[in-house]
Design goal:
The protein has about 150 residues and is α+β, with helices and mostly antiparallel strands. The protein has 4 helices and 6 strands. It has one domain: GAF domain (Beta-Lactamase, 2-Layer Sandwich), CATH 3.30.450.40. It starts with a helix and ends with a helix. Bound molecules: methionine sulfoxide.
Amino acid sequence: MEKNKKEGRYQRIFLQLGDLLQKSENDIAKMATISAVLFNKFEYFFWCGFYRIVDGELIVGPYQGPVACQVLQKNKGVCWAGINQKETILVPNVEEFPGHIACDSRSKSEIVIPVKNKSGEIFAVLDVDSKELNSFDEIDKIYLEKIINLISN
Ligand code: SME
């Protein structure tokens, strides 16, 4: 997607989500709203959703797209890397990411953003997959991080 078009769309979505989430007190409701809006606004989002840390495991939360793994093997793959490294992980080609967990073999590139509570502790991740290589860049990183901050703020 062209850079300016992508940035403009993210700016509009950020405002829309800010308005929608302001009325909610519930993290799951916020995650469901974010996945639905993002998935329906970006054609290249093939899978878009959350994994939540529950009793030390990563369990699938609200999402849009094809059926995904319900539990992710501990300390393996991109989602756990985001949690363990405490930062956004951009994966231009999933086949080159050691330990990548393929819930759907059509996924080719991926971005994972850790979700923090008000104290700065990570309690979930947002995961977005694309069927194309190299789909995610610095613009996705910046705006998805801003959007994710709406959950705790
Ligand atoms: N690829 C992820 C697993 C989740 S699916 O992409 C929906 C990972 O390696 O953690």
